[in-house]
């Protein structure tokens, strides 16, 4: 899934606070968005392994959610929603495609690393690849609560949806473009870039 889909899902998760604790809604929605994005900060490293913890985020989220329920404050609600959103991001990456350059070809059997079991979880491909039409549809559905919530975060939700739409439109051609750029680089530079 796109990072923006994860962020929008986290924001939708945070929007649940509108029902139980509306005074913390802005903090919860913002924390959900940040928590939804956080695991993808490992894109530059070993993606879906370094910051993706499907089990450990969930284990941390349970007491954080309990604390937020027992002693609600901006801080406890934000931490709980952040952790829950990060947990759902890491776990839901298994519902998408693998880590290959062209995930629509479905050649990889590695979706997200499970540190608890010490192995890769295989991709389910319900959302075939990041930027697939079904990924954009999910992003649009998850954007609904944020669009309906009259707050300054509404603009953030709309911006994330716009980025999602743009990325979905160029996802496949972007790979071809990147390969053509790499093909034109000097051999030594291309080798160094591809090794990193």
From TrEMBL:
Keywords: Hydrolase, Membrane, Transmembrane, Transmembrane helix. It comes from the Archaea. The chain crosses the membrane at residues 54-83. One of its GO terms (molecular function) is hydrolase activity. This is Metal-dependent hydrolase. The lineage of its organism: Archaea, Methanobacteriati, Methanobacteriota, Stenosarchaea group, Halobacteria.
């Amino acid at each position: 899934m796109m990072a923006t889909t994860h962020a929008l899902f986290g924001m939708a998760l945070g929007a649940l606070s509108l029902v139980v604790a509306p005074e913390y809604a802005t903090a919860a929605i913002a924390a959900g968005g940040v928590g939804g994005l956080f695991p993808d900060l490992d894109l530059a490293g070993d993606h879906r392994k370094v910051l993706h913890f499907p089990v450990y985020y969930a284990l941390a989220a349970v007491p954080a959610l309990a604390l937020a329920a027992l002693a609600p404050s901006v801080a406890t609600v934000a931490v709980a929603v952040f952790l829950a959103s990060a947990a759902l991001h890491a776990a839901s990456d298994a519902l998408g495609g693998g880590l290959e350059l062209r995930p629509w070809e479905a050649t990889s059997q590695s979706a997200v690393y499970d540190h608890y079991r010490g192995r890769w979880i295989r991709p389910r491909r319900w959302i075939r690849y990041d930027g697939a039409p079904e990924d954009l549809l999910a992003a649009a559905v998850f954007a609904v609560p944020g669009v309906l919530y009259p707050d300054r975060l509404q603009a953030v939700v709309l911006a994330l949806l716009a980025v999602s739409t743009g990325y979905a439109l160029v996802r496949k051609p972007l790979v071809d473009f990147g390969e053509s750029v790499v093909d034109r680089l000097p051999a030594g530079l291309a080798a160094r870039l591809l090794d990193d």
